[in-house]
Amino acid sequence: MGVSALRKIGLFQITFLFLTVFITLVLLLAIASLITVPSWEDIRQNIWNPEMRFSLRLSLITGFISTVMVMIFALPIGYTLSRFNFWGKGLVKTIIDLPVAFPELVLGLCLLLVFGSDVLGGALKAVGLNFVFTKKGIVVAQFFTALPYAGRILKSTFDYINPRMEFVSRSLGYSMFETFLHISLPLAKNGILAATVISFARCIGTFGTVLILAGGSYMHTEVLPITLYLNISYGNMGMALTSGIVLMVVSFVAIFVFERTEVSL
Amino acid sequence: MSFLRIENLHINLGEFYLNDISLSIDRGDYLVIIGPTGAGKTILLESIIGFWPPDRGQIYLEGKDITNDLPEKRRIGIVYQDYALLPHFTVFKNIAYGLKKIEKPGRIREKVEEMAVSLHIDHLLHRKPTTLSGGEQQRVALGRSLIVEPKLLLMDEPFSALDPMTRRETRQLLQQAVKKKNTTVIHISHDLDETWSLANKAAVFKDGKLLQFGALNEVFTRPESRFVADFVGATILTGNVVDNGQDTCTIAFDGFSLKSTDEAQPGTQVNVALRPENIIVSKKNPEEISVQNVLKSKLEEIVNEGKTSFLFLKLHHTKLKVLVTNNAVEQLKIKEGDNLYVLIKSANVRIVKEILAQDK
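Above: the input entities. Below: the structure tokens describing the complete assembly.
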């Protein structure tokens, strides 16, 4: 029976199925070892460690602010890219999408150069906004890393909303802005939820960009990925593993919620 | 002064475009727009309502140039084939949506209920649109547009997604509602059946151009091009005028001739349009009959269209299409290969404008 069943499935299917399952198992093993290696007592102690508490608190605060900022910008950007045609639209799309493929370190370097420059950096400093090696810099780094993901999700969300609903709303006396509020936003609520959780997960997990722009200084600009990195270099595995677990939980929750929204990336 | 006047409208959206469209209709007119897919019919509606700014040309409503007005200021309603109901609102909120902008809050419930009763959807007001049938959804969409009493109502194939029974009901309800308020309507349709009982004017579009515009009857009985003739189901024959008598002229075709009440110069070549529903067939040669044109033909094919059938007849080398009920086919026991007499009143032999050579 087994042999005949195998014949029916065929070599092609078996190979592809095997590769898929194999990689999934390797990943699962890697994730499992993150949880199984440290003892629960270690994790409990590390969580209450002042460095970890500082890092967790800073991650949550910056992640929250960055996510709000990302959504404030990504909603109009996603809607613009979905609905309006204008000269240079292709270029705008490419530039906004670029950070998806950009190495985080390079993005951080670019941001450091522009915000550290005399022109823009100097002007911002004059109004009290210094983004280089500061906590504010963490928000900027997270913002630019997460923005393209939210922008893409929201664009595809608005693409799926029948523009005729908006046309009908306008024919019934509602302005473009009122139509956006009454029709487009409520209909995009799944996409907005998806974009928010993915943005938050990206913000919390951003390492390279934060390291370069905000610096990875102990108990100053130290967010969870920085804690992981710093403690690995000191050889303090317990702390590194704990921040790893916290980051993993955040991303699991984000992906779980994202999958429920049935939105495409 | 015409109610709606479109002058030299040009618009290019890449895939779809309109080229130099001019037409005007009066208050209370019901204009049906027909044409194949991609002819630019929807673009026309959406530029009248103001969603697409034209590249050139003007649109006047009640004598006022509205070309640059915002859609929300025009008071033009639109009903789409896919209804475009708001899925996050109940039926009540969908219908009340436009009313909220112009009516006192205390009057909204009463007016929505009144509209719902007239469209037989008063029992659905608390439901969400996605739980309704196609016909119910379309009535909600109609109610939503009509309740704000638009100056002009635009409809983009409103019945094409409905089954024949529902279509008939919805059409009747639409007809009542439109008559009551004397609403001016522009209605895109690909189904000629549904337009007969509603429209008084017709426009035929193809490839972004307006091929013919006029009274419905004119367009259907006197198509100005072979394309329009094909589209409205008329047969076009080309013949020579041999005689122009007192009441009728005689036109000779390949092996037969027809009398027409239209005037024509003897010696000229003309095209005549024959409508399939205006031709009568008889198994026996009818004698002592008022019909001027009685011709012998051979039945080549019967095509059943549901309630009616098309008979394809051959007169010498000329093919002719005749519309009859299936009852008639049964009663007469006609079958392919039979000889049939064709009866055409001379008033139904309509001489049409010259058909352009490049028109296929």
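Note for the figure: Residues 4-221 of chain B form a domain with the Rossmann fold fold (CATH 3.40.50.300).
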